[in-house]
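Lab channel / #folding
Pinned by the channel admin:
"Please post every new chain as: sequence first, then the structure tokens as a reply. Keep commentary short and put observations after the output so the thread stays searchable."

First post following the new format, from NK:
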Amino acid sequence: MIHILVVEDDEKMNQIICTYLARNNYQAAGSRNPVEAYDLMSTEVFDLIISDIMMCYDVVYGYRGRCFFKT
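Reply from TO:
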């Protein structure tokens, strides 16, 4: 089974994507921020990572704040 990591800060969207993947025979794990994703990647092997690129999460201090990418 293909193991997919979903990195999405919107909890509802994260849940929707993981549920969709599970219903289509994929093993999905969700994380809400890059720090959680790194923790999961240190203990599990993933075949694919689906990531939101507009997350507003400060990796250094661990709180919501400035965005990684600005449009």
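NK: The chain has a mean pLDDT of 84.
TO: also worth noting, The two ends are 36 Å apart (CA to CA).
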